[in-house]
Design goal:
Blueprint lengths: L3 H21 L4 E9 L4 E2 L2 E7 L2 E8 L2 E10 L2 E10 L2 E13 L2 E8 L4 E8 L3
Antiparallel strand pairs: 1-2, 1-3, 1-9, 3-4, 4-5, 5-6, 6-7, 7-8, 8-9
C-alpha cells in the first residue's frame, strides 16, 4: 500500500465520521424550535442549552412559560425534558432528537398527557 492516494482516502474515511460526530455533539447555545403536534397544535419555543459532557441543562421559553430543562446527550442523540403546570395539572414534555449538523436538530416530543408531535430546531448564531 505505497499509493499515497489510497492511504489518504483511507485516512479520510476513518477520521471523517468521528470528526463530524464530535462537532455535532455540542448543544450549548440558543435554539429556535418549530413544534407540530399530531392534534394540529403548533409552537415556536426557544431553548437555551448548557452542555457539560453528556449532561444538559438550560431553559425553555414558549407556550408553557419559562421552565428549567434537563437532559442528556449521547453521540448525536439528545433527550431533554421539563415540567410545567397547566390548569392545575403538572405536564412533562420529553423531547428526543438527533443532531443533523452542528446547527440543526430534528426529533419527536411526547407529553405525559399522551400528546405527541415532531419538531425541527436551528441553532442561532451567537
Amino acid at each position: 500500500m505505497n499509493n499515497p492516494l489510497v492511504v489518504a482516502v483511507l485516512i479520510a474515511l476513518l477520521l471523517g465520521p468521528s470528526t463530524s460526530k464530535a462537532e455535532a455533539a455540542d448543544l450549548t447555545g440558543t435554539w429556535s424550535f418549530s413544534v407540530d403536534l399530531e392534534t394540529g397544535g403548533h409552537g415556536d419555543p426557544t431553548f437555551v442549552f448548557q452542555q457539560k459532557g453528556a449532561e444538559l441543562s438550560g431553559t425553555y421559553l414558549g407556550p408553557l412559560g419559562e421552565q428549567k430543562v434537563t437532559g442528556t446527550m449521547k453521540g448525536d442523540q439528545a433527550v431533554f425534558w421539563f415540567e410545567a403546570s397547566r390548569d392545575g395539572q403538572t405536564v412533562k414534555a420529553t423531547y428526543t432528537g438527533t443532531m443533523e449538523s452542528p446547527t440543526k436538530m430534528t426529533g419527536t416530543i411526547e407529553f405525559s398527557t399522551g400528546a405527541k408531535g415532531k419538531w425541527t430546531a436551528a441553532k442561532k448564531a451567537e
